[in-house]
What does this fold into?
Amino acid sequence: MSDDTLPDPDSEPYWDGAAAGELRYRHCASCETVIFYPRSLCTHCGAPNPDWAVSKGQGTVYAVSVVHRAPPAFKGQSPYAVLLVDLDEGFRMMSRIIDVEPDSVSIGDRVRVIFQDGPDGRPTPYFTPA
Ligand SMILES: [Zn+2]
It folds into this structure.
């Protein structure tokens, strides 16, 4: 995980959404760009303060990698599957799939977001088969 995932004033509404069971992203009204992970400036045209929107949480697996040797922060959790998911609204995010055998996930599978407490105790988006 990069520092992008730490809460800051730009991402606070995102984490508030996660706590409320909503996967939030941003949408630029000027150029129609979908922005994720949320930022305070449009990543395409630089317009300030893009609109917040709520994803339906449905997407397609773009890539999957099964982790057998977990880093220290995730000790005892392997094996698990790390996914890149293309959400139907047009953004891609990294997460993990849960409630299913990690080896059973394939590129192209349909998944939906669910929220569980993450490693730091905050409600965090994960995916499960749709
Ligand atoms: Zn824009």
About this structure: The CA atoms of residues 114 and 126 lie 5 Å apart. The pocket of zinc ion is lined by residues 28, 30-31, 33, 42, 44-45, 47 (CB under 6 Å). The mean pLDDT is 92.
